[in-house]
Amino acid sequence: MARRWYGGDTQLTVRMFLVMFLLAALYLGFIALLWASGMDFFGVALIAAALLGVQYYFSDRIVLWSMGAQEVTPEQAPQLHATIERLCALADLPKPRVAIVNTSLPNAFATGRSPSAAVVAVTSGLMERLEQPEVEAVLAHELSHVRNRDVAVMTLASFFATLAQLLMRSFMWRGVYGGNRRNGGAAAVMLIYLASLAVWVISFFLIRALSRYRELAADRGAAIITGAPSQLSSALLKISGTMQRIPTRDLREVEAMNAFFIVPALTGDALTELFSTHPSLERRLEQLKRLEQDMEGR
């Protein structure tokens, strides 16, 4: 029987809406500036769209390949499949494909553009270090990402940031647009370059803010699916504590995947929350504690 998705988090919803609104306003302003400058940017937009299309439709294969993940059948991993199948029934989701990454790094991730094309992967280190209820909480977190279509949302949110980055690179590498006198000469070129830089920088922070809010939403979804926020809290504490003992070289090998992980693999001191794809551990634990109190009061 599916869990009731009760008690919406108004603050979280408002913050995600505000970030999406600011991104949309930023991108519309960027388009207006390019249009007003007389620049023909459709070629660059086409390239950006093609790159994002590949990411959108093939993200699951790319991520699995980059992590060395292997899809497993119910016969190869019966308990893992059974757990995911039960959680999917509670979350009212189609069962995703299941994969395992053979590494001591304790983590998990989900990818795929939609619930019907999703993959949930866990590392062997996660299954070795966590108790079964904690593993279930982690899997529920990843299924919440699938339910919320987070891969698709973040891919679309980054479209114009990718376009702005391509524009900047084209200026630096070739100076193609500088030779076009019809576009206003050097002044127009500099204006478009600075606008591209500003869009990329502002998008960088806004997209990371959106990513942090979606992690909080996935934590909340996991707590609702399992009905046990404390199990996710325990899992987060264990994963974070173990991460500090993982060799730096191993962490660096997977840093590019931090946006997908339930807990980012960071070397040295953690980045400030402003630059991070994830909220601080303290913030996540605080939210889970409030949610547990809310559940107990019902």
Layout of helices and strands:
Blueprint: H1 10-36, H2 42-67, E1 70-71, H3 78-91, E2 97-101, E3 108-111, E4 119-123, H4 124-129, H5 132-147, H6 150-157, H7 159-173, H8 185-226, H9 229-243, H10 248-253, H11 281-296
Parallel strand pairs: 2-4
Antiparallel strand pairs: 1-2, 3-4
Helix pairs in contact: 1-8, 2-6, 2-7, 3-5, 5-8, 5-9, 7-8, 8-9, 8-11, 9-11
Tell me what the structure shows.
The two termini are 19 Å apart. The chain is built from 11 helices and 4 strands. The protein has one domain (10-296). Helices cover 64% and strands 5% of the residues. Strand 3 and strand 4 (119-123) form a beta hairpin. The protein is globular. By secondary structure, it is mainly alpha-helical.
What would the keywords be for this entry?
298 residues, globular
Task: Give me a quick take on this structure.
The protein is mostly helical and about 300 residues long.
Enumerate the strands of the largest sheet in spatial order, edge to edge or round the barrel: 1-2-4-3
Give the helix level as a range of percent: 55-70%
H/E topology pattern: HHEHEEEHHHHHHHH
Overall form: globular
